[in-house]
Amino acid sequence: MSNVTQMMAGQSPLPLYVQIRDNLRRQILDGSYQVHERLPSENEMMNTFGVSRITIRQALRDLHNEGLVFSAQGKGTFVSKPKAVQNVQRLEGFGEAMAAQGYEASARVLSIQQMKAPKAVAAALDLQPGDEVVEVKRVRYLNRSPVCIDNSYFPMDIGKQMFSLDLSGDIFPMLENLFGIPLGGADIGLDAVLADAETQQHLNLKTGEAILRVERLTHSQEGRPIDFEYLCYRGDSFKYQFRIDRK
């Protein structure tokens, strides 16, 4: 029995607008509806699902709030470009965060090399001037669209183990499960900068476009700094989400 038939038959305990919202969300996330594709009109969905206009609007309102769709006056409702939303209340990798939201996340390695630590990297990782690190540079993809350039730096005892590994997924689980390094917390900084030529090329940006740069220093549970990153996101593809309480 199809999802639509189940809804019309009343076989789910969930409110109708929730069932319709979840049905549309699933079709958006699995690619049945493409980016910028127009969704059926309210009248068409009323007929398809056998529900009232207010029920359809409740479902669409939730999808609007999630950033999955947008409306154009007089033209209808369209699928938004996927936007990565990462909650900073919990330390997690890009892939971990995106998988929880139903997105497909992957990475392509641009380079991996041993190098003298740049001054800022050495300071962050608590290394001496002249010490070497391993730099891993990757493009991160969300639903197969490039959204981020990730430059990660590791102390030699950790980084040298990465040359023979598959780095197409998150590195955090690798550090914990393969290297046996429990992670503690991370210090995060945000700023906006102009994309350089390489970033423009890999993220399909125009000259002069700004990007969101995230500077993240991750520590082990013992407090050792083990992973220093520059994460450069397309401005239209990423949002950090905070919750701040007034004590």
Describe the protein.
Helices cover 30% and strands 34% of the residues. With 247 residues, it is an alpha+beta fold. The chain folds into 2 domains: 3-79, Orthogonal Bundle (Arc Repressor Mutant, subunit A); 84-241, 3-Layer(aba) Sandwich (Chorismate lyase). The strands form 3 sheets. A 6-stranded antiparallel sheet has the order 4-5-6-9-8-7. The protein has a two-stranded antiparallel ribbon with strand order 1-2. Strands 3-10 form a two-stranded parallel ribbon. It is elongated. The N and C termini lie far apart (52 Å). The mean pLDDT is 87.
Q: Tags for this entry?
A:
transcription regulation, DNA-binding, single chain, alpha+beta, 10 strands, Bact_HTH_transcr_reg, 6-stranded antiparallel sheet, Chorismate lyase, elongated, 2 domains, 247 residues
What oligomeric state best describes the polypeptide chains here?
A: single chain
Report the helical percentage: 25-40%
Strand/helix succession = HHHHEEEHEHEEHHEHEEE
Apparent shape: elongated
Beta content comes to 25-35%
**For this structure, what is the CATH class of the largest domain?**
Alpha Beta
Biggest sheet statistics:
6 strands, antiparallel
Structural class, by secondary structure, is alpha+beta
Quantity of strands, as a count: 10
Kindly provide the radius of gyration, computed on alpha-carbon positions and rounded to a whole number of angstroms: 22 Å
Query: Which second-level CATH architecture of the largest domain applies?
Result: 3-Layer(aba) Sandwich
- The number of helical elements comes to 9
Q: Please, how many domains? A: 2
CATH topology name of the largest domain, in short, is Chorismate lyase
Mean pLDDT: 87
Amino-to-carboxy terminus distance: 52 Å
CATH superfamily of the largest domain: Chorismate lyase-like
**Strand order across the largest sheet:** 4-5-6-9-8-7
Q: Note poorly predicted spans.
A: none
Protein name: GntR family transcriptional regulator
GO molecular function: DNA binding; DNA-binding transcription factor activity
Domain HTH gntR-type: 14-82
Pfam families: GntR, UTRA
